[in-house]
Amino acid sequence: MRVPRRVAKFNRRVTNPLARALTPWLPAQGTLEHTGRKSGRRYRTPLLVFPTRDGFVFLVGYGPESDWVKNVLAAGAAVLHKRGKAVALADPRLVSKAEAAQLITPGSRLFYRLFPYDEAALVLTKSAPPQ
C-alpha cells in the first residue's frame, strides 16, 4: 500500500516537524538526515527504521519518487539519529519489502511485516563517520 502524495505533503509541513522531537526515541522510528540533491540543504525526515546485521532498512511509504529517497540515493550517504546517537550510513539500495525482510534482525521482523507499506524499502549499511 502506498500512502497518497497529499498525505506526504501534509506530513512534511505539519506532522514531521512535531515528530522529529520524538522519533529518535521511539521503537522502529528514527530521523534520517540527508542532503537535498538540488538545494544542498540538510533535511531531517522521521521514518520507520529496522536494524540489519550491518545497517538499517527504511520503509518507503510514499513510493520511490519521494524526495528523501532520491536525496539519499543521489548522495550515497545519510545519517540516522536514533536513541541519542548519530549513525553514519552509506551504500543505499532500493529493494522490495520482501527482499529487505530477509535482512532485518529476527527480533524486528514481525513488527516490520505488520506495516502495510509493501512497495519498497531502502537499505543502508553503517559506514565510518566523515573525518
From TrEMBL:
InterPro entries the record matches: F420H2_quin_Rdtase, Split_barrel_FMN-bd
Pfam assignment, any one: F420H2_quin_red
GO molecular function, one term: oxidoreductase activity
Xref: NCBIfam families: hi_GC_TIGR00026 (TIGR00026)
Protein name stated in the entry: Deazaflavin-dependent nitroreductase family protein
